[in-house]
Amino acid sequence: MSGPSETGRHALYSAGERKPFTATVECSSCREETRVSYVELGALMFPLHFHLPPIWRYYCSWFRCPACGNRTWMRIHLDR
Ligand SMILES: [Zn+2]
User: Fewer Cβ atoms within 10 Å of its own Cβ: the N or the C terminal residue of the chain?
Assistant: First the structure.
C-alpha cells in the first residue's frame, strides 16, 4: 500500500543541519566537508596551524582534517 508522496521538506537542509557555534571545514585532501563546533575546530588547530589570506588560495588554512586525519590545506566555512 502506498500513501501520498512525501513533501520535500528535508530538501532545505540537505547540506546538513546548521547549528549555532559550528562551522564546516572542507578538506583539500579527501574533499569531505565536516561540521565541527568551534571547540572542536580549536582542537584540530592545536598545536600547529597556518592561515593565508583567502585571496591567495581556496584552501587557505592548514590544520588537521577531522574526516581523514591528515594535516592538510583546509577551508573553513563559518557561514554554513
Ligand atoms: Zn580530509
Answer: N
Taking only the tens place, the pLDDT of each residue in 27-74 is: 999 999 999 999 999 999 999 999 999 899 999 999 999 999 999 999
Q: How far is the CA of 62 from the centre of ligand 1 (A)?
A: 11
Q: Is the dihedral of CA 37, 33, 77, 63 positive or negative?
A: positive
In a domain, 40, yes or no: yes
Domain containing residue 67? 21-77
Strand partners, 5: none
Q: Looking at residue 29, what DSSP letter applies?
A: T
Ligand 1 centroid–CA 49 distance in Å is: 15
